[in-house]
Structures are given as C-alpha cells and as structure tokens.
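ok new one. same drill as before - structure tokens go in, u give me an amino acid for every spot. 310 of them this time. try not to just spam alanines like last time pls lmao
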C-alpha cells in the first residue's frame, strides 16, 4: 500500500495541469460528448486543492459546506451563509463552480434572487432539487418529500428567466428515486423539467448499485444531458457511466471525507501520545500551507509597494 508521502502530490505537475488550457465553461463541460467530472469543495482551501489537482470544475456541496460549518444538511445554513462560502471558493479558483442550491431556499422568488446574486459573484451554475423547503439530505433517514411538479417547474423557469449570462447553467435535480417514486414518475418529471428550461438533469440514487441510474439513462429520450452522483454506488466502473452516455459524474463529498479521516487520525495520535512528534512527517508542512495561500505573491507585492522593503 502507498504511504501518505508516496501519494503526496507533485506540485510542479499540478500547476502544469491547471495551466494546461483555458478553463472550459460549466456549460461546455455539461454539453461535452465525453464524461466529465466535478469534484466537491466546501471552502476556499478545498477549492484550491481541487483546482490545482487538475479537476475542470467544482461541486459546491450543500452537505460538505454545512458540515464544515458544524451544521446539518437540512437548510440549517441560510442561503446567504451558503453564498458567503461559495464566494470564498470563487475568489480562490478560476475553474467553474456549480452550486448545490438545495431546493432553492424557498419559492420561485427566492430562486430568482439567488440566481441574480450568483451571477454577480461569478458562480457558473445552480442545481436545484425537486424537494420541499427545508430539504433533507438525500441520505437522511427521515422521509423525503417531493415538490409539486408544476411548482418546481416554475422555479426552473424563474431561474432561466433571471439569468443574464448565456452560459449560466440551471441543473434540475430529480429526487424521485430517493423519495421512492417509480422510474415512470422520474422520467415524466425529467421531461417536464427539460421543457421548463433545465440545462441538464441530475438524477440521484442512494442504491449501492447503478440499477436506477443506468435504467433511467437507457429510457431517457430527451436532449438534456444527465449528471450523476456516484456516492453509494461508488464501486461501479466509471466506463459503465461513459457507455450509458452520462455527461458529468460528481464526486460529491470526498474532499471533506478525506479531511475528516485525516483530522481524526491526527487528533487521536496527538491526544494519546501527548506529543505532535509522531505526526509531524505525515501532515502538511507550514511551507506548503503558505504555498497554497500564495504567499510568494504577497512577498513580491511588498517589494513593490512597501517603503524600504528591498
Ligand atoms: C451534496 O453534496 O450536498 C448533495 C449530494 O446534494 S447528496 O449528499 O448525495 O445529497
Ligand atoms: Mg446537497
């Protein structure tokens, strides 16, 4: 098995990956003929790590943003708190960001206001799900309540009518499988959401296999590209999604989960040993933190702007 150090990223390679080409827009990624990937981020730091690894886009996840605030993923964080988180991400990276907009934080009017704010902040798209407000995370054990189809379609139309930039994306997320609806109902909703103007459909499932997702993709006759979130069906081969014509796969929570595991292991060792010596070689160095913060840019600016700094 690789050690942590073996797997530590070579930053020269990473910087090259990031600068290799102009960042494609979110719309380009969604409409691309190839399977594309979005990686989860929940703050400025995780966004930077995702971007410099080479990912072409970010999923600003409701689950991980709320968790990083110490909150549950059932709209405990207000929409303006979410906006603030995504603003730190936007300031940190150039690659496109798709915001997990839950069920829209209210009715069509809340969606309009959110879309307006997101565009002003340079966020590239919003995903809204067909559940009632406040929503519950799809993996919570309490029952999931789907939104009325017409009311949800109205939210999608309102979002599309509000956007000013042609390439802003509105993704309609189908929670039917999560709520126990039939494939027919999910397909019917999917067609209505496409008619309402959705740029893509995110079809979610919490099964451990891809049966619902692949079955849906096979039956889907519409034009809207399909997006999936392989969290519970993580063992399915990525090529199976390619062959099914899926446009985007979202790795929705993996930077946060990786960091929680690393923080728990480090805290436990330090707690038990009453010393930080044992973890020093396996944790991120202070120099690396400063590299990620781009302190070099500040040192150059100091030379330019501070008196007597040379
Ligand atoms: C999220 O990442 O917040 C999502 C995906 O919405 S899920 O947690 O699977 O609902
Ligand atoms: Mg979410």
């Amino acid at each position: 098995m690789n050690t942590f150090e073996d797997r530590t990223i070579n930053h020269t390679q990473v910087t090259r990956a990031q600068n290799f080409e102009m960042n494609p827009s979110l719309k380009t990624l969604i409409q691309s003929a190839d399977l594309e990937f979005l990686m989860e981020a929940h703050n400025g730091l995780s966004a930077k790590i995702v971007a410099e690894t080479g990912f072409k886009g970010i999923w600003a996840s409701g689950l991980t943003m709320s968790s990083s605030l110490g909150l549950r993923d059932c709209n405990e964080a207000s929409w303006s708190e979410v906006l603030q988180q995504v603003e730190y991400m936007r300031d940190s990276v150039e690659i496109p960001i798709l915001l997990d907009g839950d069920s829209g934080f209210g009715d069509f009017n809340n969606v309009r206001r959110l879309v307006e704010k997101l565009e002003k902040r340079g966020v590239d798209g919003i995903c809204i799900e067909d559940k009632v407000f406040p929503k519950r995370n799809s993996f919570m054990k309490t029952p999931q309540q789907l939104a009325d189809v017409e009311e949800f379609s109205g939210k999608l139309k309102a979002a599309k009518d509000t956007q000013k930039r042609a390439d802003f994306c509105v993704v309609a997320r189908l929670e039917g499988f999560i709520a126990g609806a039939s494939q027919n109902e999910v397909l019917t909703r999917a067609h209505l959401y496409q008619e309402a103007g959705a740029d893509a459909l995110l079809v979610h499932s919490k099964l451990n296999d891809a049966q619902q997702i692949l079955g849906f993709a096979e039956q889907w006759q519409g034009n809207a590209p399909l997006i999936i979130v392989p969290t519970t069906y993580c063992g399915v081969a990525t090529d199976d999604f390619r062959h099914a014509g899926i446009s985007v796969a979202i790795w929705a929570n993996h930077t946060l989960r990786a960091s929680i595991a690393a923080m728990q292991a480090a805290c436990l060792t330090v707690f038990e040993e009453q010393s930080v010596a044992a973890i020093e070689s396996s944790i991120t160095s202070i120099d690396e933190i400063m590299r990620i913060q781009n302190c070099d840019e500040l040192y150059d600016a100091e030379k330019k702007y501070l008196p007597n700094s040379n």
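The pocket of magnesium ion (ligand 2) is lined by residues 61-63, 73, 100, 102 (CB under 6 Å). and btw The first helix runs from residue 11 to 19.
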